[in-house]
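pasting for ref
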Amino acid sequence: MSYELVIFDNDGILVDSEPLSNTILAGYLTELGHPTTYEDSLRDYMGSAVHRVHDLVKERTGQRLPDDFDDTLHSRVFAAFERELKPVDGAVEVLEKLAADGRPYCVASSGSHERIRVGHRKTGLDRWFEPGIVFSAQDVGRGKPAPDLFLHVAERMGVSPARCVVVEDSPLGVTAARAARMDVYAFTAMTPAAQLPGATAYFSSMAELPELLG
């Protein structure tokens, strides 16, 4: 199928941020008295907006996270980005081919607009993403696994959901894409295919993606 719009998740698809951000999140939650391993963080929060962290902690413990939790978490994550963040191997080549072919694409992330900007600037990916094709869970009422963000993107970009394909690497993202009735290609570099049920196709290297996109 020849898609009219390619929608990229950001963290783990374009920027190699998941190991950094989940290590920091797990450490911060543990510091606050909510013991969390790196593996716990990947399982519970990978691909989600930060409100999910608040919701799960409240649901499991009855306690609320500090009012400054988001600001502290973001400052720690952004500092790590400045020190260590790199693009996902092969992501630049995929973007170069899409641009050369004139194929529309955009990014739809659970992260904030600031997080996206910081990551793209640090990795040099900002040259591929003008503001009009950058979308965040901040733009809608509910983040992934709800389909709202992907449906919002399709509407804004003027493309039917059936003509969109989403590139994702988290269970929440795959669920959201399927709920939006979009095809979804699941990247298995960090998350095994068995944990990403319902995807249209699976790939383990960015070098495989252009052929999948057709």
